[in-house]
Design a protein that fits this description.
Layout (H helix, E strand, L loop, with lengths): L6 E4 L7 H10 L1 E4 L5 H5 L7 E3 L10 H4 L7 E3 L10 H7 L2 E3 L5 H4 L4 H14 L2 H9 L19 E5 L3 H12 L3 E5 L11 E2 L3 H7 L2 E4 L13 H6 L5 E4 L8 H9 L5 E4 L14 H8 L3 E3 L8 H20 L6
Parallel strand pairs: 1-2, 1-3, 3-4, 4-5, 6-7, 6-9, 7-8, 9-10, 10-11, 11-12
């Protein structure tokens, strides 16, 4: 086959997806750069036509990086979120940005984030991480007061954001015989068996467990702050697997320290695109307390979901450069 004149820089993880890499190699001149530093990416991006990003990189795709991209036409991120990319600068540079947001035909078949979110919920209310660590020390039922959690059955789960993940969380929660309510100003008639709450603060006051599943934009940034935590039930639980910037870090810590809420489980923190996160406000708190579980933004980190996301990225590039023709 004649070598393509289009060059693709791929920093997304594909090393465990040989079928994806085979197709990329057939269609493009591909440079693989998973876990490369920002400095290394800057040295590679000068003459590439397309960039498949790694949403989990520890740097942001900003003007400093994009000014080096002299031939870049399109960025594809295999994620629904795009806050790791300076999209405003891309507009100025005439660089198209494509993400999974709104691509229902693709994301409806991706289940990892919803499954993880529900797993985090169960881990939180049953104190699983804490119990695992103590078991390693030989601590058993003699200290069972430390391990005592709650049942999900009969509890009220409040879902904030009834998109793809929120809807799956509804189904999972109902399977455990929990009562489910939701707040989403854009979804009115979803399921008569769950109640739509017209006010965020009202939902917070009614829920035993609050789960956040909204996209990050200027209307949702820090939508959960001091006033919102004050509305939550005492001894309630809080889950966030959307984006860290949706929650005010200091307000969350205040709610945990004051025992306004019993515990929180989060897969995201604010300003994740840093070389080191060990001194982050929330990570420092979790290191010293047992009522905050943090996981390293791995809700979507499965072979299955990353294969589907990488396939989406490849399809976008084939459509962009070849009109969807995979044979060229």
């Amino acid at each position: 086959m004649k070598k393509s004149r289009y060059k693709v820089l791929c920093s997304a993880p594909t090393h465990f997806l040989p079928e994806i890499e085979d197709r990329l190699n057939k269609s493009f001149e591909t440079i693989y750069a998973f876990r490369y530093s920002k400095k290394e990416i800057k040295g590679l991006i000068h003459d590439v036509n397309a960039y498949i990003t790694d949403p989990g990189a520890n740097f942001r795709i900003d003007s400093d990086l994009l000014n080096e991209a002299l031939k870049l036409k399109i960025i594809v991120t295999p994620s629904t979120g795009s806050n790791h990319i300076d999209t405003n600068f891309c507009v100025k540079k005439g660089i198209e940005v494509e993400s999974l947001k709104g691509k229902e035909e693709v994301i409806e078949n991706i289940h990892a984030s919803a499954e993880f979110s529900f797993g985090l919920l169960l881990a939180l209310i049953r104190k699983l991480p804490f119990s695992v660590e103590l078991a390693k020390e030989g601590i058993w039922r003699e200290k069972e007061d430390l391990f005592r959690g709650i049942e999900l059955h009969g509890k009220t789960v409040g879902i904030v954001g009834l998109g793809r993940i929120g809807k799956k969380m509804v189904k999972f929660s109902k399977a455990f015989n929990a009562k489910v309510i939701y707040f989403d100003p854009f979804v009115e008639n979803y399921d008569k068996s769950i109640k739509r709450i017209n006010s965020l603060k009202k939902l917070l006051s009614m829920s035993d467990i609050v789960c956040i599943h909204v996209h990050l934009d200027n209307t949702t940034e820090k939508m959960i702050s001091y006033d919102e935590f004050k509305e939550m039930k005492r001894n309630s639980y809080f889950i966030n697997t959307s984006r860290g910037e949706i929650v005010d870090d200091a307000a969350l810590i205040d709610a945990l320290e004051s025992k306004k809420i019993l515990a929180a489980g989060i897969d995201v923190i604010s300003e994740e695109q840093q070389e080191t996160l060990e001194n982050h406000l929330l990570i420092d708190y979790a290191r010293k307390h047992e009522n905050l579980i943090i996981t390293p933004h791995i809700a979507g980190c499965t072979v299955d979901s990353q294969r589907k996301s990488a396939q989406y990225a490849l399809d976008v590039l084939n459509n962009f450069f070849y009109g969807g023709n995979d044979e060229h």
